[in-house]
């Protein structure tokens, strides 16, 4: 577990978003500066929420596992094969403890940003799940 979540990359500015993009994506497309400005502006009101998510992710794994077994809602997991933020090995924990998994889709040639890197495939998978 990380004690200091300030070590976790939580981009807040357009430049920080641009810098982290090449890390979180399998193959980062060239994005115009206005895109990063827009994303930073949209994220700004929710930075406290994102910080909370980062802290939850870095809690001891036992805390996560005890919660997984309580989830009963049908669950879809879409994961980028080359996700560097949340390693794909975490899928083994989910498979073991999350009994509500209905479908798992591992996207090849994809990192953490599945809707940017593989928009058609992630949308198709999501729509198929919702309509099933």
The low-confidence runs, each spanning 5 or more residues with pLDDT under 50, are 1-6
First and last CA, distance = 37 Å
* Topology order in helix (H) and strand (E) letters: HHHHEHEHH
Beta-strand content bin: 5-15%
What does this structure look like?
The structure is a single chain. This protein is mainly α. Helix content is 49%, strand content 10%. It has helices at 14-24, 33-43, 47-57, 61-68, 90-97, 114-117, 119-130, and strands at 75-80, 101-107. It has a two-stranded parallel sheet. It starts with 13 loop residues before the first helix and ends with a helix. Mean pLDDT is 86; it is low at 1-6.
Draw up the topology in text.
Blueprint (H helix, E strand, L loop, with lengths): L13 H11 L8 H11 L3 H11 L3 H8 L6 E6 L9 H8 L3 E7 L6 H4 L1 H12 L2
Helix pairs in contact: 1-2
Keywords for this structure?
132 residues; mainly alpha; two-stranded parallel ribbon; 7 helices; 2 strands; globular; disordered N terminus
Condensed summary:
The protein is mainly alpha-helical and about 130 residues long. It has helices spanning about 15-25, 35-45, 45-55, 60-70, 90-95, 115, 120-130; strands spanning about 75-80, 100-105.
């Amino acid at each position: 577990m990380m004690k200091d979540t300030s070590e976790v990359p939580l981009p807040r500015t357009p430049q920080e978003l641009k810098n982290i993009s090449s890390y979180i994506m399998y193959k980062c497309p060239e994005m115009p500066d206005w895109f990063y400005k827009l994303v930073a502006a949209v994220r700004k009101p929710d930075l406290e929420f994102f910080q909370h998510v980062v802290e939850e992710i870095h809690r001891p794994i036992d805390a996560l596992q005890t919660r997984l077994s309580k989830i009963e809602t049908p669950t879809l997991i879409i994961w980028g094969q080359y996700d560097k933020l949340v390693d794909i090995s975490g899928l083994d924990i989910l498979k073991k403890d999350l009994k509500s998994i209905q479908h798992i889709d591992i996207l090849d040639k994809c990192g953490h940003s599945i809707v940017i890197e593989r928009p058609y495939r992630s949308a198709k998978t999501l729509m198929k799940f919702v309509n099933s």
